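Design review, sub-item: ligand-bound model
Attendees: FS, YL, KQ
YL presented the inputs for the protoporphyrin IX containing FE complex:
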Amino acid sequence: MSVAHAGASVLLALVLWALVKRLTATKARAIDIAGPEKDHWLKGNYHRIFQDGLEYNLQLTEKYGGAVRIHALLGEEQLYVSDPRALHHIVVKEQDVYEETDMFIMGNKLIFGEGLISTLGEQHRKQRKMLNPVFSLANMRDLLPTIQPIADQLCDLLVSKITAGEQEIDIVPWTSRGALEYICQAALGYTFDALNPEKTSEYAEALRRFSPTALRLILIRPFVPFFVRNFSLQWRNRIMDWYPSSLMHRTCKGIYADKKSAIEGTLVDGSLKLNEPQGATGFRSRGRDIMSILLRANRPSNVRDMLTESELLGQMNTIIFAGFETTAIATSRLLYLLASRPDAQARLCREVRAAKMAHVGDSARWQDVNLSYDVLMGLPYLDALVRETLRVYPPTSILSRTTRKSTVLPLEFPVRSASGQEVTSVPLPENTTVIISILAANHNKEIWGEDASDWRPERWLTSTGERILPGNRDGIKYPGVYASMMTFLGGGRACIGFKFAEMEMNQVLTTLLSTLHFSLPAEKEIYWKMNGLQVPVVRPPAGDGQTPQVPLKIRLVRDDDY
Ligand code: HEM
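KQ shared the predicted structure:
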């Protein structure tokens, strides 16, 4: 028998052993809450939750309430949660009890290094302390001029593709390339020239392949902790080499080294004067990007809180990964919704035009006006539209946590036990996985009203157009950082980049809608699959139902559009 065969046999035996252990352990760890029967002996209910699962997820909560016992992979029972009080306990009050799973932390460490999404407890708190100020409002204001030209470039590119009066264009590659540019220029001060149609960046390709690869590997994810504990670093590196993230890691390492030497070489009087090359690809921001701000804050004078080089590198990979696909999906969804709702598009166009006209100078065209941060973030209808889209269609729909000790999870709204009794709390043994359903929380009728699943931007406005905050029923609301929705989570692990995401989407929409009009193609049905992330496809026969795409008809705006 060859060494490879022997290795494979040992691995198979270990996997079987882990499977048997998991199946037998489950019986002792049953969660006494009502929930669906197993749909599959191996996959439980997971494939229904994670593969095109929008309806299934909403039905789970509709039928069983805010806490549901589900069957996960390999016979494990898990708790699926959307109750507001339970989520407050999980992400805020008892965050240390409900930590990220080992599978998530160890998997992320392998892939991204020691960034925010790979660390727990004190190390995570230390990293947040250093990084929170980097994402302050003042720094976001400073970053706006970095992203404005990228939005202009995206708009010019789409205009250049309109050869006839109206053109069908798949916007996914362009929102995706745009999102890569925003995050790379903002986070690294670096451009991959991703909006150049002539160019394909290996790095961008690796990022795009990343999530589909991760999804395909869902069945082996539970073995990540085992893999990390039992394989040497050398073997782990060898195996990880084929994963798209290894190229991302190498690229970030190169950028980090250049940036660090640029900063170290020019830090003379405490101020940063970067001598950075200005090319099609290369450094752009002249020190105003997130990593430069972080590197400046991470000074030896602050030795107790200083991040190590490996932690700094980890943040680069993490921020780009976390900020890329999420905002690309949200932007595609926004443009798709505007195309399907001409009334909403016209109202937004009117608001943007009025704001730009109020700031137009003598010679400029109103379309070319770049709004200041405060005006951009203060447009009521734009704000309502973005919030409502992120509420009804959260780009990340589901997250998981695990109980680090046995505990009792209190509920706002009672549910049924397995034997049918009404209960207001759920006892959970140590090491129980808890699924946070962002989607079900954002669609909770008790909090958002009977029309919770309808996309209605007006719910965020009074009848006279002033901003209001719905999602609060007699003081009961979700612990989200962004209004009272769970899209960006809440508590100590909430999305650190939500202000950046909001600013990016506002800028893209105001830029594109000043020049372009979007509508749906007549013969193509666009359908959004929910596979953990949202994936838009065109249904057969016009499409293959698989390839991510959002074909929209695009033309220049006309006076009668307003
Ligand atoms: C619409 C866009 C976005 C959505 C819906 C979103 C959503 C989320 C959610 C739900 C989490 C919590 C994940 C967990 O606990 O497992 C998270 C964490 C995070 N997000 Fe975002 N995000 C978005 C954009 C961004 C952007 C633009 C950035 C960076 C500029 C970013 C950086 C991060 C980071 C670094 C974390 C980890 C925070 C921590 O663990 O302390 N995100 N995001």
